[in-house]
Amino acid sequence: MSLVNRSLVTIDDLSNEEIEAVFSLADEMLNSVNNQSNVCQGKIMASLFFEPSTRTRLSFETAMHRLGGSVISAIDVNATSLAKGESIADMARVVGSYADIIVIRHPWEGAAKIVADYAGVPVINAGDGSHEHPTQTLCDLYTLKKERQTIKGLRIALCGDLKYGRTIHSLIYALTRLGATTFLWPGPGLDMPENVKQKLVTEYGAVVEKIPADNLPLLVGRDDWSGNNSLDAIYITPSHAHQLALIPDISIPIDLVSEYDALYVTRLQQERLVATADGQDLKRDYPVVDRKFLKGKEFKKTLVMHPLPRIDELAHEVDADPRSMYFKQAARGVPIRMALIALLLGAKDVYIPEKESSPAQERAYPLYKRDFGVTCSNSKCVSLQETETRYIKIEFEIITNRPLTLRCVYCEHEVHPQYIASCNWHQGMLKNKKYHRADTHLVRRIKPENLIIFDSESKAQAYGFKPSNYASER
Amino acid sequence: MSLVNRSLVTIDDLSNEEIEAVFSLADEMLNSVNNQSNVCQGKIMASLFFEPSTRTRLSFETAMHRLGGSVISAIDVNATSLAKGESIADMARVVGSYADIIVIRHPWEGAAKIVADYAGVPVINAGDGSHEHPTQTLCDLYTLKKERQTIKGLRIALCGDLKYGRTIHSLIYALTRLGATTFLWPGPGLDMPENVKQKLVTEYGAVVEKIPADNLPLLVGRDDWSGNNSLDAIYITPSHAHQLALIPDISIPIDLVSEYDALYVTRLQQERLVATADGQDLKRDYPVVDRKFLKGKEFKKTLVMHPLPRIDELAHEVDADPRSMYFKQAARGVPIRMALIALLLGAKDVYIPEKESSPAQERAYPLYKRDFGVTCSNSKCVSLQETETRYIKIEFEIITNRPLTLRCVYCEHEVHPQYIASCNWHQGMLKNKKYHRADTHLVRRIKPENLIIFDSESKAQAYGFKPSNYASER
Amino acid sequence: MSLVNRSLVTIDDLSNEEIEAVFSLADEMLNSVNNQSNVCQGKIMASLFFEPSTRTRLSFETAMHRLGGSVISAIDVNATSLAKGESIADMARVVGSYADIIVIRHPWEGAAKIVADYAGVPVINAGDGSHEHPTQTLCDLYTLKKERQTIKGLRIALCGDLKYGRTIHSLIYALTRLGATTFLWPGPGLDMPENVKQKLVTEYGAVVEKIPADNLPLLVGRDDWSGNNSLDAIYITPSHAHQLALIPDISIPIDLVSEYDALYVTRLQQERLVATADGQDLKRDYPVVDRKFLKGKEFKKTLVMHPLPRIDELAHEVDADPRSMYFKQAARGVPIRMALIALLLGAKDVYIPEKESSPAQERAYPLYKRDFGVTCSNSKCVSLQETETRYIKIEFEIITNRPLTLRCVYCEHEVHPQYIASCNWHQGMLKNKKYHRADTHLVRRIKPENLIIFDSESKAQAYGFKPSNYASER
């Protein structure tokens, strides 16, 4: 396997072995940052940032300059032709004819996939809405690796905004795949989205255990953590690495009180909240990690990590503490991105062993593609945006049919549509053109390639389908 | 002739031979893009974009990087000292003392000329309002040349917004000069401006034939093209190359039904429209080129071109069609701009034959320069802007005096002022200080250097002139 | 002394000898601009501009490119993570882990010092609010040096907005230190701030003489200068170089009518004015330097300087005058910044003689540091901003105690707090915990390290202090 000419849209685009390969080249880059200045000479990186960012963009641009390459950049949605109503696909094709590699950040979820599909050059996702931000995950994993030598078996707590924090989503997939045990400590109302948890279970074989907050020794006496009694901790462990922990009984106190290898703190993604009183509440009740918080003996050797920028959730007084890792994380972003860029451009080569079996990489779901019918229910999904509907084909993976569950191939949100039909059964006879409830047994009798799916009866009827006898029964 | 240290403000700044020279160097650049990385080493290009743009700016910056040069850029009017009230001339002088070459895009028409006048280094106009965008024209011509080997004799239809589209204006001058026949298919209300048509006739010797829409075989049955019956097609042919076509009778059906070499589609320049219901109408009735449109046999081998970005006027379904050229056009912008930059900086040299006679290049009109009197009537003209009136001298070419027609040297709009006077005739005697109607025979008796021109009687009187006996007669 | 790895936050960070060293390397750069392209190869400059700027940013970026280095830049506060509530210190630490040198412009006064404190790499202040802009001063001084060979003994008039113009503040310190005599001609209401004048007297040994406007031969008959009769000229001379001029009598007409070596014109810093009718008045009465103004024989050989951008205060008609220096000033910004960057990065070396005694450099005031009590009274000071109070410790220099005068270490504004206490005297007995008026003799009896200072009685009481018997007496 080689990384040349490939794109990195989600962290799952890299196998465990490829992640290790990036790390090994990053080590080489780190040790001789100043000797790399001809590796990518003559190459151009396009840095397209359609959302505010300093750190990620400057980190990528630094990486490219350290490799001897050049950078062209567009950094504000108002200063670009997107403001003139151009599609992402057009932009990708044009910029792909200028640059050798593209780095894209965009508010629409799935936008990076579109760029990768159309650019004709390697594309790196630098964050697409609340979807993924895989290079941040590489920096996080690299820091864990440098500090603990391995990721397998580590105990890592994720704390704060687990709902909107895209860094968190990419990270938890990778941690699970690489064999770490993860503890979720969401801020009130900021729980990990269901589809992420679902994917961890069905595709990474994780076991999810839910433990009521008052059972958690960890949180006893921490009224400052949250005044909200409904706070739970969620315990996720990969079935692969931790088979022994998969005991049927939930109370595993010995695990819950032992030390954490890392505490990963995130800020409230305020820019993704609707501006309401709610936002104010979320802000007020948001957990804060400070010197007092870190006094617990379970944190004695815990690496304190944060993707930055921080606001109030991680006190400045922690900065001088040797456990603080966040500035190291940021600094390591440069060698990681140097390694990644060099590999995708074929400017450097590393040995990558044959891929071991990885459930997430091998599973292939049947695809659902139609010009009409069900659409993604995520309003931030790129497939729903006016400029993109001109060319994008609706496309879903059919994850399961009991209940019928589709995953959007762009933003990876899951939808559960209620009505189905077949393009085979009606045989051109209008009276046979019927739709059915998705929870009837028919969902299993229609071949995937014949399936037509609707999210409402009115849509089905608009396409000339009539309710079947099954439409209202189970 | 050499291009070293010259500027490119309008496409007429290059002779036909010089355009060919740019193409020949572009071929060389295209064939060895990666071997150019030391051609402009140590040189700096300033990229000053005071209007939104991705594609043009990135194309220029890519070109400079591919040549091994560096780029400094200012990309937003709000982030610059223009916001502090600085004049364009000052900015040009200062940036000209930093950079070796300047690329400028500006909303004011004529702004690029000011920059070229003051910078002291070569300046490339990357679009000044609705005036010109000569490098886009070079990319367009280069694509025609690459696909058809020659431009002379090609039949090219220009379609869409011919009123505000600056790319169109530069293009039609060049096509006419280079011997192509052009067909104008404006969207409703978006006709080619009169001054452009006028200039094609008087300076490029073009013959303009106007044919009512219902006489045009081409448009028969194309109700989808426009619901508007007033749509005309305008047929322009250079006298030079197509003398034979200049038959007095207008009906030349054999030409009108034969094939087109290229169809050049443009988007509606919405950002130049005043936000009114009008804008909505223009949008609704705007022509759309799609697969159905292109089925006509006159388009069988037609190159479908577009300067991009597109909105709805060119359907995505055409992208996969081998006739689609627009992404190639965009990609070829890089070698074209590499060639141009290298030539202006003297970093590359090509043989340019002696210039053949070119009407547009040789005609010299008498100039009209005054501190007072008539001003340009184009509100977007750089000469009228508050920050620029501090130093700009009003200056016009006197195109003809029957009727008196002036062309602004900055934005090239034409004005037809009504009143004239002489600075010679009154001999210091106040009673002799009189103004006259511009359509009297006096306009031919006053020497150009003595001419004083007013756009209103009140202005003339404000400067102490009284109406003459001739002021109200012919 | 070496400049390697040092920062330039205020002009006082450079000794007179170091300034000369920068000039000598700038001469070398100027003479071989095109031969420097490997001096900083592989080095990266971060250009962080949180206020609008073209000229300064492009000048720095040009300088870095001319040295063969690379540039990463963030140019708009809305496009950065500051918009997400991040502190300047965090940004500095992260960017400092990417780049080899940082150039920062920021609206908050003292922001550059924070960046220099936290970045871990050399930092250059490119303007922090109305505080300082030391590289502009270097360009100004370099122009004087090039045109007059020396700065010692020059007579220089500063004209216009002396209140908000940060370039003026850095400049006058340097001119005074280097032995020039300065004349202040403020626009009405735009006088030099008191703390700047104070510092010139107390730290640079300058003698400040105030002369009523009607005594000034220079301004006789210049009603166009200002309709405002309250206009004064302020005459500043360094005690060191001009001891003889320090005569007790104020009328020194021979000096006032003799020639000026330079006239330094500045624009009204409108962006720092509150938008009121006041702003309109300031604009209307602002002095204008034009051809007529410069006809006075005292300006016969005067260098006309301006930091640019200009608006109306310096007429374009002066541009062609050989006395105009402002475009030369701008152009010389490049070699000056090349020299400075190369020296701070250790990429070039020049001999710097031992520092002579310099009052400003050697004086060490006692420091006042507390978690509570008096804060800076300048609302633009970085120490008062919400994002920064999380980590910044309040810190002042105690300039004098009669009357008690503190200077903020961040923005250098002076405060005159009214109440003091000691952390020593109350010996834990609550009744002894008292505060006193700052103008009693007690201020000299409390050791600086024990001093507690309050700006109001209510604050003192909020911290548990009670009024002493001295609190209301002197």
List the helices and strands and how they pair.
The structure is a homotrimer of 474-residue chains.
Chain A: H1 16-31, E1 44-49, H2 55-66, E2 70-74, H3 88-98, E3 101-106, H4 111-119, E4 123-128, H5 134-148, E5 155-160, H6 166-177, E6 181-186, H7 194-204, E7 206-211, E8 233-238, H8 253-257, E9 262-265, H9 277-284, E10 303-305, H10 326-344, H11 359-362, E11 367-370, E12 394-401, E13 404-408, E14 414-415, E15 419-422, E16 434-437, H12 442-445, E17 451-454, H13 457-462, E18 466-467
Parallel strand pairs in A: 1-2, 1-3, 3-4, 5-6, 5-9, 9-10, 16-18
Antiparallel strand pairs in A: 6-8, 7-8, 11-12, 12-13, 13-14, 15-16, 15-17
Helix pairs in contact in A: 1-10, 2-10, 3-4, 5-6, 5-10
Mean pLDDT value of chain A: 82
Biggest beta sheet summary of chain A = 6 strands, mixed
Q: Which regions of chain A contain 5 or more consecutive residues with pLDDT less than 50?
A: 213-235, 237-256
Distance between the terminal alpha carbons of chain A, to the nearest Å?
48 Å
Total helices of chain A: the number is: 13
Categorize the overall geometry of chain A: globular
What is the oligomeric state here? homotrimer
The two chains with the largest interface, and their residue counts, are:
B-C, 29 and 33 residues
| Cα Rg of chain A | 24 Å
Strands of the largest sheet of chain A, in order across it? Answer: 7-8-6-5-9-10
Overall SS class of chain A: alpha/beta
What fraction, in percent, of the residue positions of chain A are helical? Answer: 25-40%
User: Care to count the β-strands of chain A?
Assistant: 18
Strand content of chain A: 15-25%
